[in-house]
Amino acid sequence: MKHNSAILGAAFLMATSAIGPGFLTQTSRFTGELMASMGFVILISVILDIGTQLNIWRIVTMSEDRAQDLSNKIIPGLGYFLAALIALGGLVFNIGNMAGCGLGINVLTGIKPETGAIISCVIALGIFWYKEAGVLMDNFAKLLGILMIGLTVYIAISSRPPVGEALYRTFWPLEIDVKKIVTLVGGTVGGYISFAGAHRLLDAGIKGKNSLKQVSNSAVSGILITTLMRYILFLAALGVVSGGLILAKDNPAASVFQNAAGQIGYKFFGVVLWCAAITSVVGASYTSVSFWKTFSPAIAKKEKIIISFFIIASTIIFTLRGNPVDLLIKAGAVNGIILPIALAVILIAATRSSLMKQYKHPVWLQVFGWLVVAVMTWMSIKTIQQLF
What we know:
This protein is mainly α and 388 residues long. 82% of the residues lie in helices and 0% in strands.
């Protein structure tokens, strides 16, 4: 029973790590720009997400080593480089996550976002310092994940989107935007998010060939939960913009909820934003630190202290930075650029039989994984050219 809870918890940890303020902002803004063709961007990102997650989760849990340790066994020092990339991407995201926490509480209560962020910081710290932190983290992610999806379904129904056109354009778009695909993939499985569930499964003792089916099911479940939420939010936003309304640039997701269901919709947005942000804070902090704790017994021993510092630092930086919307968009793009590097390292590890403990990674998954690396590398180069 405990293992089943951890398996589902890992899926929700990955999903709720992905469904953060950046997720809400990106999906809403991009729908306003692409209209129904946004469905195609989501479809391509899902295919790339599945190719990424199945490879990373299976290779990491079958090797029974965290990604950074696998990397160091391939090339000494490579694990430190990967851990630095993941921590940087996680910190950038977490600053936006803390901002989302503050803004969510601001919508619900009217208190200053900075104060809301501090309250949320205390709640996140409480989760990690609780005696059964792993179990609490799993249950917290599941409960708030279900709540987010439920409220967004209500908004999608209220906005009355053109479902037929949305489905048609999902497979036959009027416009294809490479940068948006990279940003969405980066926001869903880029950076630390790729490893959130896999490292959680290792901590729960779910590893080795006997756990292969459970690991694969958990990986796919995480992607499907994330995709369900993104497509529902896409439909909600499409319903609003199809009616001729223009989403606010400074907070496009709030516009979706408010225009679809008035003041109650705006309050629902506050709940969804806070749920999305606080679960992403938990996921980003836990996973980013999990990349460092095997490097030194001292780090492992003081894991909770380091996680706490990570959360507190993110909160302080938010209070100094202000509006996070552009940061959230760029964070997805940055993590999308990190993704092909991280995935390539893990795929190389899968070819080393000495590292895989008698597990042979399927050829079709290796091919799928290298296709994702190639496509994401090409699209990342295009994105870098646009960003800079």
